[in-house]
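Notes from the 1:1 (GR / supervisor)

We went over the backlog. Supervisor wanted to see one worked example end to end before approving the batch request, so GR pasted a single chain during the call. The sequence is below; no edits were made to it. Supervisor asked that the structure be written out right there so they could see what the output format looks like.
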Amino acid sequence: MSGHSKWSTIKHKKAINDAKRANVFTKHAKLIEVAARNGGDPEMNFALRMAIDNARAVNMPKDNIERAIKRGTGEAKDGVELFEVTYEAYGPGQVAMLIDCITDNKNRTLTDVKTILKKNKGKFVEGGGVSWQFEKKGLILLPGVDAGDKEEWEMKIIDSGADDYEIGTDGIAVYTKATELKQVQDALEKNGLKIEEAKIIFDAKDKISPTEDDLVDLEKLVELLEENDDVAEVWTALE
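Structure output shown during the call:
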């Protein structure tokens, strides 16, 4: 395990302002609804458990969570059919991008994504042109721990079966195989480590460092994509 620090590259946005709160709740509701298709009990459905935990982390109201679960299980009949789709692109500086979306209208979302890319120095890529550059992993975020206890919590992470971890000023990122995320999360919790967030991510195999100007343009592009209600997550090959 490396234990090196790349916390600044991890997209971990806990602090959201009021202007974006409704947008964030909409995204989390969709994630919960999709996860609930495989069962409304978070104890039996780990994907739903993760979706609920992450929604609670941004202070999503309990009623919103419960309505999303009911839409996903079919108990509530007022929902629309949602589709999961991933688009591929290159951003400024030829940075590879995956754009995960949850939508009730694929044509609308595709048009929106293509428009945002075209207007902001991005390039849409047909399926398969970018996705091979990423691999699916599990990510668990832990809050900062006392440096004096480093040996103890490092052993707990290693014993959990995690593949790797990274230390940052704000906390620790623990990486797992995608299929072992639940197992590692349960082991960390059992050993007394607090978990802020757990999710499946797409991690670039080869990361790049664009120029400062390209980085500014890329950050603007990602922000504009994330402002779209249909965009659930944007993954980049940024170093």
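Supervisor's comment: The domain at 83-132+206-236 is CATH 3.30.70.980 (Alpha-Beta Plaits).
Batch request approved.
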